[in-house]
Design a protein that fits this description.
The protein contains twelve helices and 13 strands. The protein is of the alpha/beta class and 310 residues long.
Length: 310
């Protein structure tokens, strides 16, 4: 209940700054109905209306005008108390908290672990991963979520959730998506000699791409592939597993296939989709900690010397 109230109160504070539900939805990436329901829930708890909506613009009621200063104080105090509690920049801290794009976590970060642990014999590492689908509607509560971590890998389409005054961008990792199938699948299915042949196969997609159409490019032009039969999943990891097991053809990040090095084949290598990327970020307070700085150097060195990305 208290967590809901804080989230709803923070939403109202941000809504007043934005001026309209539409503007706040555009800024945070949240659905307008989600924002509206939070305000309705807050009004229900307070047993008073706090805003009126006139022609798309919000106006505070008399009750709301009196309430906002108290909510500003409350949200500021909670934020300050939380920052003091986690104490990111403490010089003797020996824990690093990672928040990872799930494909970074699964395919790449494990390669750094031994080097990270060698930084300090007392160092502990905590890693949490997320899928793109999970993060789509985090919106306003993302700041409280991110505040728990020292280092973040986040997909470029979610970068609007990051406060650039609190996070330092170290590296942008870019890759392109290509068509892949396992040797097992190719052995048991008809030959694929052109884009048109793909319509006869099961296509496996993740939610970074539309479910029924893929746009592919070669040296000369763009081609639209209309998918007839498909399997959808909410993460690249599941897509990779299904492809490896021989369920169909996938449009997957080239970086993941390079890192994994297993029996997956790039079919129609002249075709690819557009590029996509992830950002490697470090919290500005955490970066004051010498152990965190060493960890950032270790990860940066690995990312810059590996050949997984463009």
């Amino acid at each position: 209940m208290y967590n809901d109230f804080f989230i709803d109160a923070a939403t109202l504070v941000e809504l007043v700054k934005a001026g309209s539900i539409y503007a706040l939805a555009e800024a945070t990436g949240e659905h307008r109905t989600t924002i509206s329901r939070r305000i309705q829930r807050l009004e229900f708890h307070l047993k008073n209306n706090v805003i009126n909506n006139r022609g798309g613009k919000i106006e505070l009621t008399a009750y709301g005008i009196g309430l906002i200063p108290h909510l500003n104080t409350m949200t500021d105090q909670v934020s300050q108390s939380y920052s003091a509690l986690i104490n990111k920049s403490e010089a003797n801290a020996t824990q690093i908290r990672f928040f990872n794009n799930i494909s970074i976590y699964y395919f790449f970060l494990e390669s750094c672990l031994k080097s990270l642990l060698n930084i300090d014999r007392k160092l502990s590492i905590e890693m949490v991963s997320y899928s793109y689908y999970q993060m789509l509607n985090f919106g306003l509560i993302s700041k409280a979520l991110f505040d728990q971590f020292d280092i973040i890998f986040i997909h470029e389409s979610l970068i609007h959730l990051i406060n650039d005054q609190e996070w330092i961008m170290k590296i942008k990792l870019e890759t392109i998506h290509k068509l892949y199938a396992s040797q097992l699948y190719l052995k048991d299915h008809s030959l694929i000699n052109s884009i048109k042949d793909l319509s006869q196969h099961v296509c496996i997609y993740n939610n970074l791409f539309p479910t029924k159409t893929w746009l592919l490019r070669d040296a000369d032009s763009e081609h639209t592939l209309n998918i007839e039969q498909s399997i959808g999943c909410d993460s690249v990891i599941m897509q990779h597993k299904l492809t490896k097991a021989g369920y169909g053809i996938s449009l997957m990040p080239e970086s993941i296939i390079k890192a994994d090095g297993d029996q997956i084949v790039n079919i129609l290598p002249e075709f690819s989709s557009g590029s996509s990327g992830s950002y490697f970020l470090v919290n500005s307070e955490s970066y004051k900690n010498p152990i965190i700085r060493k960890a950032v150097d270790v990860i940066s060195s690995f990312l810059q010397t590996s050949n997984f990305w463009q």
